[in-house]
Amino acid sequence: MSLLQSEHDSLPESGLEKSMSLVAAALSDPSRVTILCALMDGRAWTATELSAAASVAASTTSGHLARLLSSGLIICLSQGRHRYYSLAGHHIAGLLENLMGVSTHSRALPPPRTPEHLRYARTCYDHLAGELAVNIYAFMLQEKWLEPDGSSLTSVGKTQFHDLGAVLHPEARRKACCSCLDWSERRFHLGGDAGHALLTCFLQHAWLLRVPGYREVTVTKEGTKAMHRLFGICQP
């Protein structure tokens, strides 16, 4: 599998303002935003799948993907004759989550229609988001698994992660641990490598199950028991 370089990577430096305007322009089209939201599940999608998700023609989708590539918001992975698209990284997922939070304060926003099951548990790129995630984060702060600012795990937290089977990567290129503002709950959930490790652990234990093609995750019967036992959380 080879990574195709986006046009954004080769753009000459022309000032922060111009770079910001390019990103803002790429986000100005509802179809492109729909494509980005589909990629928030952390997996790579084909152009055909994204075309269906955005409900636009294949030719139109190609133009949107080219625009998103040139702005550095997505990357294209080439595997044989096939091409797959994904977000350019967890920082883009964080940008989109924050944008969702800002958008909910718009005076022109219609009444919220987010399904309750999506509000409770979903993915934010490669970590867990929603009510469940912010409750876990609050528990970790209370039990001193995290430093007060959420910037790192404490020694207690690292031990707890080890006991859970959540594997941390000491040489990860990304932030080891960070707080991520949850757009639907207006509180923080766990991001960074620690957030990814926790979600991976939950999936491996089959406490959570992905809904194919969507950001939604469901909590299994065993997962409900585990969330209560480990974090004192009762599923609504």
UniProtKB/TrEMBL annotation:
<dbReference type="GO" id="GO:0003677">
    <property type="term" value="F:DNA binding"/>
</dbReference>
<feature type="domain" description="HTH arsR-type">
    <location>
        <begin position="12"/>
        <end position="107"/>
    </location>
</feature>
<dbReference type="InterPro" id="IPR036388">
    <property type="entry name" value="WH-like_DNA-bd_sf"/>
</dbReference>
<dbReference type="GO" id="GO:0003700">
    <property type="term" value="F:DNA-binding transcription factor activity"/>
</dbReference>
<dbReference type="InterPro" id="IPR036390">
    <property type="entry name" value="WH_DNA-bd_sf"/>
</dbReference>
<dbReference type="GO" id="GO:0032791">
    <property type="term" value="F:lead ion binding"/>
</dbReference>
<dbReference type="InterPro" id="IPR052543">
    <property type="entry name" value="HTH_Metal-responsive_Reg"/>
</dbReference>
<dbReference type="GO" id="GO:0010288">
    <property type="term" value="P:response to lead ion"/>
</dbReference>
<protein>
    <submittedName>
        <fullName>ArsR family transcriptional regulator</fullName>
    </submittedName>
</protein>
<dbReference type="InterPro" id="IPR011991">
    <property type="entry name" value="ArsR-like_HTH"/>
</dbReference>
<dbReference type="GO" id="GO:0097063">
    <property type="term" value="F:cadmium ion sensor activity"/>
</dbReference>
<keyword id="KW-0614">Plasmid</keyword>
<dbReference type="InterPro" id="IPR001845">
    <property type="entry name" value="HTH_ArsR_DNA-bd_dom"/>
</dbReference>
<dbReference type="Pfam" id="PF01022">
    <property type="entry name" value="HTH_5"/>
</dbReference>
<dbReference type="GO" id="GO:0046686">
    <property type="term" value="P:response to cadmium ion"/>
</dbReference>
